[in-house]
Amino acid sequence: ADNDSPYRNQTGYLKKGDIRVMGRKIVVLDTTLRDGEQVPGAKLNLQEKLRIAQQLKTLKVDIIEAGFPISSQGDFEAVRRIAKEVVDGPVITALARAVKADIDAVYESVKEAQKPLIHIVLGVSDSHIQAKLRKSKEAIMQMGVDAVKYAKTLLPEVQYSTEDATRADFEYLWQTIEAAVKAGATIINVPDTVGYAVPEEFGELINKLNYRLKNINDKVLLSVHCHNDTGLATANTLAAVKNGADKVECTLNGIGERAGNAALEEVVVGIRLRADYYGAYTDIATKEIKATSTLVSNLMGLEVQVNKAVTGDNAFAHSSGIHQDGLLKDRGTYEILRPEDVGVESMELILTARSGRHAFKSAIAPFLHGQPSEADFEQLFARFLELADMKKEIYNHDLYHIAEAYYAVRE
Ligand code: KIV
Ligand code: ZN
């Protein structure tokens, strides 16, 4: 465990509750390269993983979960290269089950990182203990404690995940967390592994755990990891933030096992837009969101649904004439999030024959060579109406062609 990292053997590079005017800092872990890469058909090669990891650094995520190194030599090598090459920024972690071989593989793959972290997961619900792990509850808890103690002999920072926490008996969940903290875990992660939670109930669970955790160790970070099986991953994550969670686990575009994970862009924008409500902030460079989303989507071959919040193609496209008129008078009427703040060049007004002169004039302006005379404008508008009758919807590229065709005829 000896390299030149200035952070080596120094705990506290993941600090809890860095409070600023905007509220509590929420630590963001991105697991696009681990939970996200579990999506069938979305496998990445080494260079692609490195590219995404570098972009996650530009996005300023606090922690990159780079893979599951015991699963294959390729995964191990990808985590190792990310740990070595993605420097001066994020903590690098990878996943281990609560067994020595997995923990060794994680340690060997992340040890060259400036800020390495070992992530251990072990089931905590009756269904996981009885059907999957097939040992007594006491034996499982001991297995978790032994795993944390072993990981602590390798690195100072260890995250412990209580898999399927939302279907577990609360007192057993708490005893497990208490034992893991006493064994040295520095982050406790509460996964809603099968997307079973509902926001109010999950918020209450986090509130109770936060209260108890503070009483035994006020430096340990409380984290959440929500799946989207009923479409509630973002809502559950935000309910946890409201109730004191210090850290959130997300993926770009919400990709992940089955229906996916909480979408980073939704959680981050949710916190930012309603900082007044959550009393929290993240360090995410939101202007990098669109570029990161596009990179992940292209490299993994997973299209983003058009109406996806924040990163979908239609997230900033306005098609109703009434909305367009309102927007042109004041963007705030129908736009609570500015596209440029998440790296989208501009909102797009999708014009129809009903959009009207005002909307058309403003939409075509960027494609014109200066101010048209009134007669010129009427000719352009007539051409637009003709095309709109045929095509129904007119996009920016259609406006470009209307303008170019008009100039070509005149020259
Ligand atoms: O969903 C889950 O429980 C996980 C853990 C490894 C955190 O992905
Ligand atoms: Zn998961």
TrEMBL record:
GO MF annotation, one: 2-isopropylmalate synthase activity
Domain Pyruvate carboxyltransferase: 26-290
Residue positions binding Mn(2+): D35, H225, H227, N261
EC number: 2.3.3.13
Pathway: Amino-acid biosynthesis; L-leucine biosynthesis; L-leucine from 3-methyl-2-oxobutanoate: step 1/4
Cofactor: Mn(2+)
Gene Ontology process terms (BP): L-leucine biosynthetic process
Coiled-coil stretches noted in the UniProt entry, renumbered to this chain: none
Catalytic reactions of this protein: 3-methyl-2-oxobutanoate + acetyl-CoA + H2O = (2S)-2-isopropylmalate + CoA + H(+)
Quaternary structure (record): Homodimer.
Family that this chain belongs to: Belongs to the alpha-IPM synthase/homocitrate synthase family. LeuA type 1 subfamily.
Function, in words: Catalyzes the condensation of the acetyl group of acetyl-CoA with 3-methyl-2-oxobutanoate (2-ketoisovalerate) to form 3-carboxy-3-hydroxy-4-methylpentanoate (2-isopropylmalate).
The protein, known as: 2-isopropylmalate synthase
Gene behind the chain: leuA
Residues included from the entire protein: 40 to 450 of 581
